[in-house]
Amino acid sequence: MKLSHALNLQRKRRCIGKRFLELTAVDKHYSDQKTTEIVAWLLFAPAVFAYDSGQKEATELAVLKGQLEAVRQAQMNKKC
Q: What distance, in Å, lies between the first and last C-alpha atoms of the chain?
């Protein structure tokens, strides 16, 4: 019985060890991803702050579209 118990513990240890190695690889991948993220922030953060949403131009474009539509409607009404 003592031998059987020792073999079970040995199998359990191998199983845990195998899973531990698998998860260590995942942990390394996570660490690599975080390093990549930090590098990306360092390289591209200035670009984020320089980003222009184009809101002013979008508003102007919407106004011009409205004006064009108003002129088109006026032309249709006057049969020009």
A: 104
Q: Which long-range contacts (CB under 8 A, 24 or more apart) does 45-49 make?
A: none
- To 5 degrees, how large is the angle CA 4–CA 9–CA 14? 125
Phi, psi of 78 (to 5 degrees): -95, 0
Residues 6+ apart with CB under 8 A from 44: none
> How confident is the chain (80 residues) per 10-residue block, as mean pLDDT?
81 90 83 90 80 83 92 87
- If DSSP codes are grouped into helix, strand and coil, which group holds residue 57? helix
Q: What is the pTM of this model?
A: 0.40
